[in-house]
Amino acid sequence: MKLYKSFFLFIINILLVYGSKDCENLVKYLKSSQNDSGITSDCCDTYIITCDENNNIKEMNLSNEDIKGSLNEFIGQFPNLEVLNVEYNMFEGDLTIPDNSKLRELYAYSNKLSGKLTISANIEKLDVGNNSFEGNLYIPGNSKLIELDVSDNKFTGNLKIPNNIQIINAQNNLFEGDLNISDDSNLVEINVCNNKFNGTLTISKNIEEIHIRENSFIGSIRIPENSNLIELDAGENDFDGKLIISKNIEYLYVDDNSFEEALVIPENTNLKILDIEGNNFFCYWSYDESFISENCFEDTLKCTNEQIEEYNKNIDKEPTKEIDDEFDNICNANEIEDSNKNSESDTKNNTPDDPNSGPTEDSNSGSLLNIKLPSFMFYLTIFSIIYTFLI
């Protein structure tokens, strides 16, 4: 009797291993798409497929296998599938991940998918970059999505980001409108370069990296003082308001915008790289002169105390013509010249005490590294000579 029982269990194990329904479905599908991957009905024993104790396929890595057909149909044949990698294949058509799917991670980068994308609430990581999806991108409010890559598609409309998402790559699409990142958002990194955003930017305190180059954002950039933001690339936009910098940011690119007010570098700044080329800042101010000595602000004058007072007074206000005019009236008149070429006559003609005096024809040449201002000792010496002469 024991011999019969052992033989029976042996037969059951053979059927479980070699008679997996999921493996059979996989073999059939691959044959129908004329794929010769070498996968057989004992697929659970391969390194690219992981099965559970009942030989249901849980994970598959079929990247770069030239698989064709409908991805919806493929996923539907594996009800227990949790992780699927089909990058660099030839799946086509739209993609719908049903709510009853157990799929947690799907990587379908660089296929021929097109049309509409429907995301289930259960999926946590989704990469459908480099396809041809169109229309609006809808992410359910109860979504568990943590990482999303929809780069290099044709999505349009507004980009609404649920609070639980941590990383999103949506560059090279056609998104437009504002980009609002709320303070209760868990978003850590976002890339929406080369879209059609034409509204304002709202920055949360939790986010660490923002890449929004090549859009049409307008208004101001305000980085909260308690922000965790380390890198911001906002070059090639239409920002025309204030640039408020936190001391924590390390890499800041705002080249080719239309900023016109003061550029104030905070005290104890962590800035390592700052690119402000292609703007029209009135002046700059830094509490840390070592930062200035390592960076070049060509064609930008150092702010006067009056300008800094005006800047601080209006820091919470958006620019208006009245504010701009008042700020412009106290524009610094000091020339920027090489320190070895400064002369006493240059100093007398360009004192900072006259807020209405404008820069000379050569005031935009050189670098801020060469700024020379009359010192207190200079005025004291002149006063002593005049006082001695009068006595």
Keywords:
single chain, about 400 residues, seven-stranded parallel β-sheet, elongated
Commentary on this structure:
The chain has eight helices and 24 strands. Residues about 1-20 and about 320-375 have low confidence and may be disordered. The chain has helices at about 1-20, 20-30, 70-75, 290-295, 305-315, 320-330, 345-350, 375-390, and strands spanning about 50, 55-60, 70, 85, 90-95, 105, 110-120, 125, 130-135, 145-150, 155, 165-170, 175-180, 190, 195-200, 210, 220, 230-235, 245, 250-255, 265, 275, 285, 300. Strand 1 and strand 2 (about 55-60) form a beta hairpin. The chain is α/β, with parallel strands linked by helices and about 400 residues long.
Write the layout of secondary structure elements.
Elements: H1 2-18, H2 21-32, E1 49-51, E2 57-61, E3 68-70, H3 71-76, E4 83-85, E5 90-96, E6 105-107, E7 112-118, E8 125-127, E9 132-135, E10 147-149, E11 154-157, E12 167-169, E13 174-180, E14 189-191, E15 196-202, E16 209-211, E17 221-222, E18 231-233, E19 243-244, E20 251-253, E21 263-265, E22 273-275, E23 283-286, H4 289-294, E24 301-302, H5 305-313, H6 321-329, H7 344-349, H8 376-390
